[in-house]
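Cont'd.
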Amino acid sequence: MAAYDSTDRAILDRLQTDGRIANVDLAEAVALSPSACLRRVRALEQDGLIAGYRAELDRARLGLDLTVFIELKVGQHSRKTAARIESVLSGIPEVVACHVISGSADFLVEAAVANLAAYERLLIDQILAIPAIVDARSTFAIRTVKTRGPLPLAQLR
Amino acid sequence: MAAYDSTDRAILDRLQTDGRIANVDLAEAVALSPSACLRRVRALEQDGLIAGYRAELDRARLGLDLTVFIELKVGQHSRKTAARIESVLSGIPEVVACHVISGSADFLVEAAVANLAAYERLLIDQILAIPAIVDARSTFAIRTVKTRGPLPLAQLR
DNA sequence: GCAGTCGCGCAATATTCTTGCGCCTGGGCC
DNA sequence: GGCCCAGGCGCAAGAATATTGCGCGACTGC
């Protein structure tokens, strides 16, 4: 499949908001029969547009009161060290997101931890323990206005 | 409800990975009968631990090739301007996350856009158009190692 | 030891998912 | 203009799943 219409967009839009909506209700919301709707959803999954479904948990209620952004600098760059660093970082449960970035740092990591003590353990024992990481600069989220918001669909063709 | 056990954790863990798993299968995965499992899930939803369910879309396939982090500085701070800025920022579809942060900037925004042209429009027409925003520093994600990863559950009591 | 509470599994019912099928529509081609 | 084909739809039936009431057993606190 290569072209998507406004119905597909409506489906994606709805599923981004409520990923567990019954197909019957989704169908009604986008003005299709359940069978046609389900076929569209399956096609979107097949195409990889829908990568999966996730339950969205509440950080505060989980006891994760601290969201921290950590910029990391790497000493000697090489394909090998980069791969190693990435695999270690993404294996840390507290690491919720991780990007290779432009600018003065090399990685931007988002971590969710319970408190400052947990943050310290994460930073010292896990992140700074990675060889080749020479610097870390942390920024704390004082308040989260929006997180994991829906992706825009306007550009979809 | 106030105390959670390892079965609750297992349920949350599973639902974070596959938010649309059939209750029958979830029940089997956590070694419960379907009815008991469903009651647990409902309780977790009621408690707000499960905030909702979302379809996870693929940015690249949506045509969102650029993830940008934008640090914003605010000129004169006041409760009112802060509230205004937040509401405008979270209303922008491209803004996928937004935090009030510590450090030299005031806001950290994550935006998903199609390309540099779209980024420019977002920055100039939408973000810098907000009064009281005096500076913006953008960092581009060269590659995304991990995004919207599962939250850690180890600290849950 | 006993009553109360909580959470479980079972089973029946309601709801939903899923798939085959025939129909309609629109585009390309004589 | 008319024909043929492909794609997508709705309908309907059967399969699977969700949902709820109910009784039972285990643990708690007295």
